[in-house]
Design a protein that fits this description.
The chain is built from three helices and no strands. With 97 residues, it is mostly helical.
């Protein structure tokens, strides 16, 4: 439970940081959409979360590689590292089932 709350805290921080970056670049507030439903079973949820975190690592590193602004590059690299850490925890949780 403690780890999942820490992961949730990281994800909220990522959303806040990315929203600020978006607003600074576009001078507009971002709008959000839920594009996927989360599984309602524990095992399926852990597997879903693991895959999602792994995909986020690749996505964030790609953005960091393309970014010219050092601050943006740093924020996305840091987020990628966080996501990789989260994936390791979800893999650990999955193995405990």
């Amino acid at each position: 439970m403690k780890r999942t709350l820490e992961i949730q805290k990281d994800e909220k921080r990522h959303l806040e940081e990315f929203s600020k970056i978006y607003t600074n670049l576009t001078e507009k507030k971002p709008s959000y959409q839920i594009i996927e439903e989360c599984p309602n079973k524990y095992r399926a949820g852990i597997e879903f979360a693991f895959k999602d975190e792994q995909e986020a690592v690749d996505f964030y590193l790609d953005i960091a590689d393309k970014a010219n602004d050092p601050f943006i590059k740093d924020r996305f690299r840091r987020a990628a590292a966080d996501e990789q850490n989260h994936a390791v925890w979800f893999l650990f949780f999955f193995q405990k089932i």
